[in-house]
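Hey, quick one: can you model this chain's 3D structure?
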Amino acid sequence: MCCFSYQAFWRSKMGRKDASTIKLPVDQYRKQIGKQDYKKTKPILRATKLKAEAKKTAIGIKEVGLVLAAILALLLAFYAFFYLRLSTDVDPDLEQDED
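Sure thing. Here's the predicted structure for all 99 residues.
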């Protein structure tokens, strides 16, 4: 008789809006443990997130090296262009002074 009255009670609660408010003690216990676990891991998660963000935004040695190499190549190209341009502009018609 005991089980029948519980089943009848449960059936009567199933169709109502407040049927979801009835929680089993096991579910409440699991929820409490989950909250405690989240509180413990929250600082660890925050530290991991900050480390990942810093890693994303940090400029690496590889990028700095590539930028410096590009600037050096550009300067070398300008130097070579002007060196070759000025060194070949000697007028062959001019007589050189011979001592």
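One thing worth noting: DSSP finds three helices and no strands in the chain.
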